[in-house]
Amino acid sequence: MPDLLRMESITKVYPNGVVANRNVTFSVQAGEVHALVGENGAGKTTLMKILFGLEQPDDGTIFFEGRQVRIPSPHAAIAMGIGMVHQHFMLAPSLTVAENIVLGAEPRRGPFLDAEAAIQRTEELARKYNLPVDPRARIRDIPVGMRQKVEILKTLYRGARLLVLDEPTAVLTPQETVELFAALENLRRHGHTIIFISHKLREVKQISDRVTIMRRGQVVGVARTADVTEADISRMMVGRDVVMQLEKPPANPTHPVLRVEGLRHYSDLGKEVLRDVSFVVRAGEIVGVAGVEGNGQLELAEILTGLRPAHGGTVTIDGVDATNMPPYRLRALGVAHIPEDRMTQGAAAAATVEENLISDRFHRPRFQRAGLLLRKAIRAHSQELIRQYDIRTPGPGTPVKSLSGGNIQKVIVAREFSSEPKLIVANQPTRGVDVGAAEFIHRQLINAARSGVAVLLISADLNEVMGLSDRLLVLYNGEIVASFDQADQVSEEELGLYMLGLKRRPPEAAAS
Amino acid sequence: MEPLRAIFSAAFGYSLLRVSTPLIFASLAAVVSGRAGVINIGIEGMMLAAAFAGVAVSAFTASAWLGLLGAVITGIFMAMVLAYFSLKLKTDIILGGIALNLLASGGTIFLLYVLAGDKGISSSLPSKVMPQVPIPIIKDVPVLGEIFSNHNVLTYIALVSVILLYYFLYRTPLGLRLRAVGESPEAAESVGISVHRIQFMALGISGLLAGLGGAHLSMGYVSWFSRDMTAGRGFIGLAASAMGGDTPQGALLTSLFFGFADALSNYMQSLRVPSEFVQMIPYLATVLALAIYSRRQLARKRAAHRPSQKGVDPVVAHSGHH
Amino acid sequence: MKGEIAFEVLRTLVAVALALALGLLIIYLVSEEPWEAFATLVTGPLTTTRRFGNFIEMAIPLIFTGLAISVVFQASQFNIGAEGQLFLGAVAATMVGIAFQLPPFLHVTAALGAAILAGALGGLVPGFLKARWGANELVSSLMLNYVYYRLGLYIINYHFRDERAGAMVSFRLAETAWLHQFWPPTRLHGGLFIALAAVVLTYLFLYHTRWGYALRMTGINASFAAYSGIAVGTVILYAQVLSGGIAGLAGGVEMLGILRRFQWQMMPGYGFDGIIVAILARNHPLLVPLAALFLAYLRTGADIMARMTDVTAEMVTVIQSVMILLVTAQAFLQQYRHRAVVRATREAMA
User: Fold this and answer.
1) Which CATH number does the domain housing residue C260 bear?
2) Rounded to whole angstroms, how far apart are CA atoms C207 and A354?
3) Count of domains for chain C
4) Which residues of chain B make contact with A84, given a CB cutoff of 8 A?
5) Residue C233: in which H helix or E strand, if any?
6) Does C37 reside within a domain?
7) Residue A335 β-bridge partners
8) What is the rounded distance in angstroms from the CA atom of residue B48 to the CA atom of residue B74?
9) Which domain holds residue C119?
10) A368 and C342 in contact by Cβ < 8 A?
11) R_g of chain B, CA atoms, integer Å
């Protein structure tokens, strides 16, 4: 088969000196599903941004349908027939499905927008490709799975023949993933070509014809998917064999540290986000919260750490009523928090490593006297943490933003774990960090729990939440729909059914 | 009471529309740029520069309409400068706006001195004013005629602009794109809409409206230019736009409210209250209204949490936080 | 890191040079004697002792307002009300200077204390509205300028006005409230040392106290600060109050050191100048005096130029605004830097 796309010797250097792509050559044949895999930071996203005109390469050439092309903007990419479904949906929440689909290529009647035609065209496309959506609904009112369909329809409306899907299954339940794959098969039958970016190797094996593997900005292998095993791909991605199995001594939980009863929360729009949530986390155990993102996990974590108000119910920490306490009082009670979004909450990018390490304790007598900061004590403390948590930084005075993602996460982990916590709320603690750092953080979580800390682990990564947790809760639609006292006794498939709300365990069982 | 009767007179109604005109332009200028996600702090300076340009051009061409054209072009030009610096060169748009205000404040005095030999007022320049227009039929209706007829043509342009901007934003493809760019620039970018181009355009329209507002000040409201004559109206426009929910119709209403405060202070000049206090009214009203508005926004947010809804969609709840 | 600082310095210098070149161009266009005018602008402040004094005198209020703005900028807040706060401070100092009879040192202290208090109260209002209800401090602080300005004029005109003086001015301040002018024939006064002390104190506050740390963290990332347990609302409030206090002090020092009777009929503009000083100094207190001196030099030169030639002093605001635009333009000259980085990386790769 001829190459539909060929990107040759692409090099991209970001202004901060990071080489995102180094001499990358990547080609896709017409009509295939081609998987592009690699760890976070391997350069997949940059390569696709170049393909879609969002970034310009510093070097290299692109051939599309046999002709050399320049792609100066997304507009140019779309005109060529390239469509992209981004990892974070590119939809305007207050506009309707139809408005989002026709945006930029609107049907008109005279000088005005033809709203009826927009709805009609949306319905036609949805029927043709079997991707049912409600054209009149506003994006903010529809579930994630449907938003993704809107994204795909958007590219098809613009006549895309080459579709790029950037980690499309990251936000989907196993069942929604099945639906997506059916849709992709259908698209391939209609003659479309698909680039599928992922790091979930099982899915890659399942859906793709060929696979290109990237590591540290370079292509390290191209293969027919049928010819390689998951282990082969994994080895190429990481450069060494990864042991996913964590050694975890058995839990020996003692007294309850966190007790949540009847917790409720409503969003700014008045929607109920958490409904009658009750559970207990005891000292010495890790309780995992599984669930598709957006089912109340963020809100739960933020209520427990004082960043969001509870609108009903109680939170008790070590016997103290901690409902709606401000963060500084919760921290004084011994609550540590690894937030979901490390750059917006967990760290101050422009501040130094040292300044980031003391943000919760700068007011303690150890670090200030009469308001004056004790620079020597602070310096010694931060150097100790840098050493202990193996933070790779030129020094404590280096701005955090110049560290790698994994090391920034280590700064956060170092601060939170060294605060002598009784309770750690860890929300997606290893998202987007390299394997080495993730392993380190996992070990720290286990060590903390085994030394008597209560750990609440919220994660959308099933491997992580199943591998680390002693007990498991499933959050769906703001409710705890299932609870397992033995995290290792439930299968991934079964968990998926609960996560999607297709199955639930009676609340009596959940309240154990 | 004398002032009370004055407020309910037709003359007060007329004066309300007159003093509200520059505020309507300023607030519409804020709406169109705000909706595109580019806050235009420079409206104040654009109005001031346009007010000066209107006087200067009309004095030298002896044509009020050419003066208006000069004012509008000046407004647009200043907006393009702001757009170029903030969008292309990544100047902080608020600092950029402040710089433009400074530029207009000093630059107009500088040019006034060059042209009129005076640093305070342009009375030595034979500038023109825009005509007043009697409205047929309405002008003969007793009270209504007194209030609505015989305004400066720019007052009518202001009212028409509210309607035009409404249709532009909500009924045209370009308006849809503008709103999408303001709400979710990545979404717009992902379908090939040039965010910069839309924002350039929005700032251009914003400058045009600010230019019309400035022209009204020096070629309608009064018939001369004086230093810093905008006196914060551009900023009041920003406040009015925010309080009007960033919609043209909301901006009209809040502009009328601030116009009311302004007209009230004009009417109270005759009373024996120290003039310093009377002149404070429009600004105090803005601060108070802003405080009350912000407080209500906060209360509304809290009220939304009342447990009443059923059939919750988990995704919806999530949408507010990313 | 070093390269980054060097690049920033270079970029600032190029921006300043471009702005000055634009100034030259404007002078050339409007003046009959452009070279003379430009020469006066550039060398004027150094030609006589008195002019040199004017230059340093002018820097004093700019140092204060530059510090005032730096403090709020470091908290990622705006304060374009420094102008009004300074005005209030001047009025308060005038009131104390006229209405009280106190021994010299005490009188100065009381007058300046009143100035700080008045300015701080002036900053409290927008700070409170923002911290409590989230009201945009940009709009509120600007609107309050007009309110404070008229409030100040009312106090002076109705209660402290010297009817015998021809113009609208207040009575003279008691001599006990004067700041000593120590270098005749210039008017250089003790306020210079107060300003330098303020520089050091602001620096210590921002970089060596827990409150300064909390303020900077809030400025860098407010969500992070809140997450860490810092009371962001309180920080916003004290940043605005402190900024207002420093601006008020500027007004008081001007009264006690230079004017010695209230004679402003318009806002003097130092509050807005403080913005450019803070921008040039990158919000760092220790760099504020440098930036203030630079701007004062330009201003003094412009005043002398206006007196000696046919170009008005307002020309400087054109230079100033172009400087703000260019110095804050992050992408300005960035492409050259990017090219250099790419080249260096490529060489390293080869």
Assistant:
1) 1.10.3470
2) 13
3) 2
4) 190
5) helix C232-254
6) no
7) A423
8) 10
9) 58-310
10) no
11) 21
Q: What is the pLDDT of residues C109-152, one digit of tens each?
A: 999 999 999 999 999 999 999 888 888 888 888 889 889 999 99
Contacting chains of B (3 CB pairs or more, <8 Å) are: A, C
Top pLDDT among A446 and B239 is at: A446
Instruction: Identify the CA nearest to A87 among candidates A175, A233, A194, A198.
Output: A198
> With 80 as the cut, is the pLDDT of residue B312 above it?
no
For residue B321, pLDDT over 50 is answered with no
- Using the predicted structure, report yes or no on whether residue A240 has a pLDDT greater than 80: no
Per-residue confidence (pLDDT) for residue A245, from 0 to 100: 60
Band (C345; pLDDT cuts 50, 70, 90): low
CA B160, B161, B162, B164 torsion-angle sign: positive
Residue of B nearest to A500 (CA): B314
Which residues of A fall within a CB distance of 8 Å from B198?
A: none
Distance from CA of C151 to the nearest CA of A (A): 36
**Between chains, do A78 and B173 touch, taking CB under 8 Å as contact?**
no
Give chain C positions within 8 Å (CB) of B119.
Answer: 312, 314
Please answer yes or no on whether B235 and C133 come within 8 Å at the CB atom.
no
CB contact under 8 A, A372 and C209: yes
Give a yes or no: residue C38 inside a domain: no
Residue of A nearest to C341 (CA): A17
Average pLDDT over residues B157-178: 94
Please, are residues A73 and A53 in contact by the beta-carbon 8 Å criterion? yes
State the nearest Cα–Cα gap between A494 and chain B, in angstroms.
21
Beta bridge partners of A36: A197, A212
Instruction: Please report whether residue C110 resides in a domain.
Output: yes
Using the Cβ of B192 and the Cβ atoms of chain A, whether some distance falls under 8 Å is answered with yes
Q: In terms of pLDDT, which residue wins out, C249 or A435?
A: C249
Is C45 within a domain? no
Verify that C193 and C326 share a domain, yes or no. Answer: no
Q: Are residues C239 and C344 in the same domain?
A: no
Q: What is the pTM of this model?
A: 0.82
A17·C334 Cβ contact <8 A: no
Same domain, C13 and C160: no
Residues C318 and C306 in one domain: no
* Subunit contact C225:A348, Cβ cutoff 8 A: yes
Q: With CB atoms and an 8 Å threshold, state whether B280 touches C144.
A: no
C:319-348 residues touching chain A, CB 8 A cutoff: 334, 337-338, 341-342, 344-346
Chains that touch A (3 or more CB pairs under 8 A): B, C
C324 touches C5 (CB < 8 A): no
Are C113 and C186 in the same domain?
A: yes
Question: pLDDT of A404-447, one tens digit each?
Answer: 777 888 999 999 999 999 999 999 888 777 777 888 899 999 99
CB C62 within 8 A of CB C273: yes
| Burial class (CB within 10 angstroms; exposed 0-12, middle 13-18, buried 19+) of B1 | exposed
A199 Cβ partners below 8 Å, 6+ apart?
A37, A38, A39, A40, A167, A237
Say whether both C27 and C171 belong to one domain.
no
Indicate whether C100 and C188 sit together in one domain: yes
Which residue do the tokens 């909301």 mark? Answer: B250
**C17 and C87 share one domain:** no
